[in-house]
Amino acid sequence: MLLQQIINGLTVGGVYALIALGYTLVYGILELINFAHGEVYMLGAYLGIIFFGLCTATGLTAVSLPLALGLTFILSVLFCAAYGFTIEKVAYRPLRSASRLSPLISAIGVSIFLQNYVMLTQGATDKVFPHLFGAAGFSVLSARITYVQAAIIICSILLMAALHLFITRTSLGAGMRAVAQDRVMASLVGINIDAVISLTFVIGSGLAAIAGIMIAMYYGLVNYSIGYIAGVKAFTAAVLGGIGSVPGAMFGGVFLGLVESLGASYISSEYKDAYAFIVLIVVLLIRPGGIFGRSTEEKV
Amino acid sequence: MNAPSAGGAAFRNLLVSFWFGVLILPFRGIVTAAAVAGAVFACLSLYRPLASYLPSLRLRLTRTEDLILRLTSGPAAPFAGVIAAAVLLFIPVFASNYLLDILILTGIYGILAFGLNVVVGFTGMLNLGYVAFYALGAYAYALLNVKLGMGLWQALPVCVALTTAAGFCLAVPALRLKGDYFAIVTLGFGEIVRLVLNNWDSFTNGPNGISGITPASVAGTSLGALDRYYYLVLAAIFAAYAVVRRVRFSRIGRAWVAIREDEIAAGAMGINTTVYKLYAMAFGSFWAGLAGALFAAKMQFVSPESFTFMESVLILCMVILGGLGSLAGVAAGALILILLPELLRGVQSYRMIALSAGIILLMIFRPGGLFGSATRER
Question: DSSP per residue over A86-140, as a string?
């Protein structure tokens, strides 16, 4: 029983971690809580269903399931990356020199806009992802992992590792770290700030899209409102791990997934959504910078 | 920046329109995508010719702002005030119940906006969970009325004391956190309160809410009728305006503005920023409690659905629309954000999209709020 809950928690935690990475990357560079990020995850889920439906309608799924799934993932990631890029260009770039409050409120505006945009274009009822693998899986000790769960966990781990390597080993990644550290100096050294910021949004949105499609496959149902609650929980995870820290976001996401799963089964499932906030408040009281966060002094 | 050639500009507009068309393509199909692309192209192409009208528009806006300024603070101010007061007092005589309903709701949201303005506008702390205090006030009154039979005047002190204490208690731990973290913690608090109200069936009746609240009464006469309740809310909002304005132009208010402008400098000047921020949170929550009790007494029914994060966002928008810190502007913001959806009842489903697009545009083009400098700090 405990092992089963841990497996469930790791699955959801992996998804939270992927979304949290988007939050932490953007915050590290812009010091902005990108409220719209949760909605990009929701867009990814919807796009996954739409593109997979297209593949099925054109008969591609019958021909080759892996090809259809692959195409679904690629197209959804591309479109979500485009959405992320557009959001940054339209709603955040003009406000880069404004006070801290303006981009935040603009982000809230974008979040509400996207929710209603999907509600108007796709309807307010749940959208269904066809069940591909059912409950097929394999048993581990006393618990059971379905193929979808295993795929989500493995996918999350691989993506997190890939991101970590990208940020630490490539020059683009070094550029991102530089801009996060000191934007002015980075521009003086010759780094294209606009390009790096756009890249950050693109990467974050891509990860969120993958998380969205995986959740659509896992639960089978999506709705225009899933972005908000997942977004807040993922941001909680990012803050938990120390906002601005990539390993922190990974840890925070997994930790939150576990807390939620265990709390729902051992304490009460009615307050499932509240556990994220309670954990957040407790962690911030003890360590205001988050678990892996570094406490930065404010310079006058 | 050199003006691009006409052909180059048209090509760029074409690309941008194509981009937006492609973005909407999976969601709505090719017809809508083409329509959106066409609309974007039209807007972008028309921008250059329309931009020449911008200076005259700005001039007209400044003239209106000057007019408002002269009416409210010049020699004509007392007359304008008397006329406004007369209008407000005599509205129930000829207004329909529907209009009275809207005005009462505007009054209640106006009080909420004043309260949030203290926290966000004066002191610069982003409180995203303000609706929690509103909910606490409303539910406190509902429970006191239904379970203990207390009337509005007996329950009101308890309600506002409860919400003030709640604001204080939330602020004590939360103020240790930096601005953005503080915002998220308040958001979390708002959600926790809503979840508890929704799930604690034995105490709060869960999603069914609490119904059967008796109408308020004053000296034996019932205030259940809308036109009488209107006067109660009118008195409440005037009281709120007077009190908040008085505090704003006192030592505490000046400390708040100093903290908003530059917290480190304020601390260096000897202002105990933590204590004043606590005052701000507690004072702001006080008004939420009052508004909550008034809301419950009017609706005679409370349920968790009225107290979602969207409500917090709506109140925040009223504060932003009116220009952070300006009381009259905030009241106008409340009026606009309640009135406009009512006027646009026909296009209800487009309401939130228009509101959110409006927020984004407002932040980009007019961060000082709709009324900018005209109602600055009044």
Answer: HHIIIIIGGGTTS-SHHHHHHHHHHHHHHHHHHHHHH-SS-EE---SSTT-EEEE
